[in-house]
Amino acid sequence: MLKENVPLIECSWEVCNQIGGIYTVLRSKVPAMVERFGDNYTLLGPLVSKGIEAELEDIRLEKDDPIAEAVTELRNEGLQIRYARWLVTGRPKVVLIDPDYSNQKIAQYQEHYYKKYGLEKDDGNDLLNRMIVWSRLNYRFLDLMHQKLGTQHKMIAHFHEWMASLPILDLHKHNPKIRTVFTTHATLLGRYLASNYSSFYKNIEQFNWEKEASNFGILPMAQIERLSAQYSNSFTTVSDITAKECKYLLGKSPDVITPNGLNIKRYVAMHEVQVKHQKFKEILHDFTIGHFFPSYHFDLDKTLYLFTSGRYEFHNKGYDITLKALALLNDRMKKAGLDVTVVMFFITNKETWSINPKVLQSNGVLREIQKSVEEIKKQIGNRLYEAAVSSELDHRLPDTSAMVDDYWKLRYRRTIQSWKNEEWPYITTHNLKDDQNDEILNSMRSLKMFNSPKDRVKVVYHPEFISSTNPLFGIDYGDFVRGCHLGVFPSYYEPWGYTPLECIARGVATVTSDLSGFGNYVLGQDTGGVDHGIQVLRREGRSEDQSIEDLASYLMDFVKLSRRYRIILRSRAEDFSERFDWKQLLPHYEKAYNKALAK
Question: What is the pLDDT of residues 352-396, one digit of tens each?
Fold first, then answer.
């Protein structure tokens, strides 16, 4: 519980602006925040999303509402600003400010931060300069709102990431009654270092932050992170893994760890978890038939669907060791003579020209086959019924092929003939713009993974995030996940990791790593681990070869599990996910807010 009843403003570039994981954090947290803080809680974001209009319901600007009074005054100054209800679960209040209003003042704002805080200028960095403008406008709104509230009152302003956190600096110096909280979900410099140094965690204490930030061309942003951590009244991050990053790269250890959660109620299917899995697995079966069966056949009843997804960060997301572990798994399954097939999906985002026309054509022809089969079934059904009721003495089953018109027989044969081919199935579903330099494809080439008929492990590389408008699947990403058997996310750099958490919330077993915030948090729980559908791969302090061997061994064990035990894991995983409901995790935020109020 908060020690004082004060207004709470939570600010992020991803408020009503879906870009990445912080949008998920904020939107999923809203119901718990509104339940806990009521109308004291308001979100502050940018007025940039073109599709946001349908999600907003304007709030009447009335007196005695400090937010409305501040919005009115800023509108009178010409500022583009919205005060509305965000029409998501919880219906929180939001204030959205157009960041492009004061572009003509960018030089003035740059000079302000350079003189007062030593923030380096970078005229060519459009993102940085847009954030500087937006931050100055946010500071103006917060300061004005506080004036309308009454300068003797306290309020809390909570900022996420460097893109939103610049107001902390001026609030600290000029308006200390507005208590500030800064949350970094991942340090910008840490992400760059992890992508470029395989020994990042081993050598993290030795990096010169300023030198490295300059080398990567991100010095002003790294400065904003450090200054925000230093000036905030309460500094938080999402995991112990990221806390270590903050200590050495930002020069300050977090005051509070605020782990990420979900609104679990939106995910839990209760007793229907297996029913939903079966329903969406059938859709994956349809895709598999269309993609693989023109070339060769395998038993769908003995097929397991694995997947990984996320930003295209080949090393950070663990795609590198996943592919090598899959190659080992393939060899071991063949040597063991297992009659199980593993289809592994890589779902990520890469520049493409289009969906591969041959992949689309194969799926289209499959629909024609299905149509022909339905028509033939209908003909046979009707004529078999007529034969049955009109027969007097002969009770034998008649020749059903004679009941099909020649037209449908011919169409059936021609459609199948046009569908079958001798080529091996494509690895990629899309035509990549630069497939010669694609790390996933090059790794598969070096590992000789080509989706041959003899391979027990097949790979489908889908370089586009899945949605219901996707012609290959026609379902949302969440339903795709439910259809799978295992999510594989052995990340090397992952400050939190929503993808494995979303898996268990949907009753899907998952692999994570101890270098992800989520995996590290699971290890700290009194129960959990593999018995609850979560395998935490040990990567810290272990070589890449050891991690690959461990992952391949776990995948082999999973392949050998009985169907009955996999069903048990689904229920256990879903039950365990309740620990990550925001209502369970909100006390961590309250601790951070109380710390800010006490300063």
Answer: 999 999 998 888 888 888 888 888 888 888 888 887 777 665 677
> How many Å is the Cα radius of gyration of the chain?
28
Is the CB of residue 320 less than 8 Å from the CB of residue 500? Answer: no
Rounded distance between C-alpha atoms, residue 14 and residue 10, angstroms: 11
CATH number of the domain that residue 54 is part of = 3.40.50.2000
Instruction: Phi first, then psi: give them for residue 125, nearest 5 degrees.
Output: -95, 95
Encoded tokens for 1: 């519980």
Question: Contact 322/439 with Cβ under 8 angstroms?
Answer: no
Report the Cα 317 to chain-centroid distance in Å.
Answer: 12
Handedness of CA 463, 343, 322, 448 (dihedral sign): negative
Residue 480, both tokens: 């795709």
CA-CA-CA-CA dihedral for 470, 471, 473, 474, to nearest 10: 70
- Burial (Cβ within 10 Å: 0-12, 13-18, ≥19) of residue 406: exposed
Do the bridges between strand 56-58 and strand 457-462 make them parallel or antiparallel, or are there none, so unpaired?
Answer: unpaired
Paired with 347 in beta bridges are 309, 462
Answer yes or no: do 198 and 59 share one domain: yes
Measure CA 499 to chain center. 5
Residues 450 and 549 in one domain: yes
Number of domains in the chain: 3
Residue 87 CB contacts under 8 Å (≥ 6 apart), including other chains: 54, 55, 56, 57
Query: What is the rounded distance in angstroms from the CA atom of residue 415 to the CA atom of residue 408?
Result: 10
Distance, in Å, from the CA atom of 57 to the CA atom of 73, rounded to the nearest integer, reads 20
Digit-coded pLDDT (tens) for 142-201 = 999 999 999 889 999 999 999 999 999 999 999 999 999 999 999 999 999 998 998 899
Residue 406 in any domain: the answer is yes
563 neighbors 12 (Cβ within 8 angstroms):
no
- CA distances in angstroms from 104 to 97, 170, 534, listed in the order given: 16, 21, 52
Tokens representing 550 are 């461990």
Measured CA to CA, the distance from residue 45 to residue 84 in angstroms comes to: 12
Strands (DSSP E) found in 177-278: 178-184, 234-237, 256-257
Identify whether residues 111 and 254 lie together within a single domain. Answer: yes
* Domain span including residue 507: 299-356+426-578
Query: Does pTM surpass 0.85?
Result: yes
Cα–Cα nearest to 477, from 343, 304, 284: 284
* Spatial CB neighbours of 558, under 8 Å, sequence gap ≥ 6: 304, 485, 486, 509
Say if CB 96 and CB 46 are below 8 A apart.
yes
Phi, psi of 469 (to 5 degrees): -85, -5
Distance separating alpha carbons of residues 403 and 393, to the nearest angstrom: 20
Neighbouring CB atoms inside 10 A of 489's CB total: 27
CB 497 within 8 A of CB 261: no
Residue type, 70: A
Distance CA 81, CA 74 (A): 8
Same domain, 473 and 572: yes
